[in-house]
Amino acid sequence: MSTLGVLVTCYNEVRALEFSLPMFRKIYPYSKIYLTTESSNTNFDSLLSLNNIKINHVEDTMYIIKQVNDQNFVEPYFQEKILFATRSFLNRVKQAIEFCQSDYLLLMDPDTLVRGPLSLPEGAKLLGSRINWGLPSALRTILAQTPGAIDINCWGATPAIIHCETFLKSYKYVTEQDPTFLPRITKTFYAVFAHDVILPILFALQGEHEIYNPEIIECHRNHYWRQTSHPLVHQFKYLYDNNRNGTL
Questions:
Q1: What count of other Cβ atoms lies within 10 Å of the Cβ of residue 145?
Q2: Does residue 243 lie within any of the structural domains?
Q3: Which residues contact 60 (CB under 8 A, 6 or more apart)?
Q4: What is the sign, positive or negative, of the torsion defined by CA atoms of 19, 48, 157, 26?
Q5: Which of 40, 78, 131, 228 is most buried, by CB atoms within 10 Å?
Q6: Is 227 exposed, middle or buried (0-12, 13-18, 19+ CB in 10 A)?
Q7: Residue in 36, 164, 37 with CA at minimum distance from that of residue 98
Q8: CB 204 within 8 A of CB 135
């Protein structure tokens, strides 16, 4: 049976994680959790009782990214920030894999709930929603010209489930075998740094398409999500401190 670890990326959403992570732990009592927070002054110690959890405070990469758009992203200043954010995220995935020592890794944001066992289909390397279509032609050309890669035109890998060994192969490729790959693709698309974009690109380098995960349901797209049996819930923001959109 394949094993599952978790990478949680967040800022200061402690209250949301105090709800979602104990729920996850009831279903997966032994899975390791690697939590990274970009907040330097938020205390997450209340989560340490979950055991098998590591909390890592990291540099804030997103504060400047919020100013990026499809017009200014090619400017050298923003290119530097986009590339830094992209590399930082990939490094965190690698660190989570090294900590969790699992076959697969679930990438959770604070608005993700796991309310049932998750399927890990044999042969699937990247599971996601595949909800977005239309990648830039320049980015697709770079993929098409990369040996062993495949052309893709969709993304939506959130909440993503990734095959760790396959990810590490692509990580090695973009950091050691062809360190020009990331700087080249960041010049083609302003949102390359986004988790749900860069992950399908990395798996495309290994000839793997993102596989649609039917176990995902999104609160904003399906207001009846509470009545469904989908085990992987996304867009659950009811416990965010700035939420004004409803209650549990």
A1: 9
A2: no
A3: 11, 38, 39, 40
A4: negative
A5: 78
A6: exposed
A7: 164
A8: no
Q: pTM of the prediction?
A: 0.93
Domain count, the chain: 1
> Are 228 and 190 spatial neighbours (Cβ–Cβ below 8 Å)?
no
Residue 226 lies in a domain: yes
Q: Which amino acid is at 54?
A: K
Which residue in the block uniquely carries the two structure tokens 């989570």?
96
How far apart, in whole angstroms, are the C-alpha atoms of residue 37 and residue 164? 21
- The kind and range of the H/E element at 127 are strand 126-128
Asked if 24 and 6 count as a contact pair (C-beta separation under 8 A), the reply is yes
Tell me the DSSP string of 5-59. EEEEEESS-HHHHHHHHHHHHHH-TT--EEEEE--SS---GGGGGGSSEEEEE--
| CATH number of the domain encompassing residue 180 | 3.90.550
The domain of 86 spans 4-234
Q: Which token pair is 186?
A: 């960041």
pLDDT for residue 247: 45
**CA 190/CA 169 separation, integer angstroms:** 25
Condensed to tens digits (0 to 9), the pLDDT of residues 43-92 reads 999 999 999 999 999 988 877 778 888 899 999 999 999 999 999 999 99
Nearest CA-CA partner of 190 in 92, 65, 93, 88: 65
At position 174, the amino acid (one-letter code) is: V
Query: Backbone phi, then psi, for 233, in 5-degree steps?
Result: -105, 135
Q: Is residue 239 part of a domain?
A: no
Residue 157 within a domain = yes
